[in-house]
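Researcher: Quick test of sequence recovery. Tokens follow.
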């Protein structure tokens, strides 16, 4: 499964390079839409429009040449190997939240650690949102990350693990 995910990411990256050459940079309207959708998915990942929002964000991230996000399994790796308990939605949220962060903080576009942290935090917000409607949902890796966030050690953890993402 992990090989499939890595292969899919490589294909998406290659596809994005080719498609980015076909279009110009993102527009202000697209960036506003991306932030709005990313935040909506963090707050309500089970929204009836969530699937369409994820599709739009994914296609947009693949095709737009000026917004880039990196995916790292080091932080939420067990979600990569699962299709149950909202794993794909929670993992992909890291990409969308990273994109929103880059848009809102363009000065940090080259700061990998800040982007990873923003992505993880977005996934955690989505996880907590899902848990409100499904209290039995339990991802130990995400619970651990929440404990780190609440103890103000999440940034240090991301700093420690980020070199493994390259």
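Model:
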């Amino acid at each position: 499964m992990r090989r499939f995910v890595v292969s899919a990411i490589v294909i998406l990256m290659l596809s994005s390079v080719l498609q980015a050459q076909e279009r110009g940079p993102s527009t202000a309207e697209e960036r506003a839409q991306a932030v709005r959708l990313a935040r909506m998915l963090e707050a309500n990942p089970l929204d009836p429009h969530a699937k369409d929002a994820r599709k739009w964000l994914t296609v947009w991230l693949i095709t737009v040449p000026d917004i880039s996000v990196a995916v790292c399994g080091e932080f939420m790796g067990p979600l990569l190997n699962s299709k149950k308990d909202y794993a794909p939605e929670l993992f992909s949220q890291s990409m969308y939240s990273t994109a929103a962060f880059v848009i809102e903080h363009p000065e940090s576009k080259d700061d990998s650690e800040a982007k990873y942290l923003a992505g993880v935090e977005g996934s955690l917000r989505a996880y907590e949102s899902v848990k409100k409607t499904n209290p039995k949902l339990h991802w130990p890796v995400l619970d651990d990350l929440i404990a780190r966030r609440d103890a103000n050690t999440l940034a240090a953890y991301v700093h420690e693990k980020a070199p493994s993402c390259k």
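The chain has a mean pLDDT of 89.
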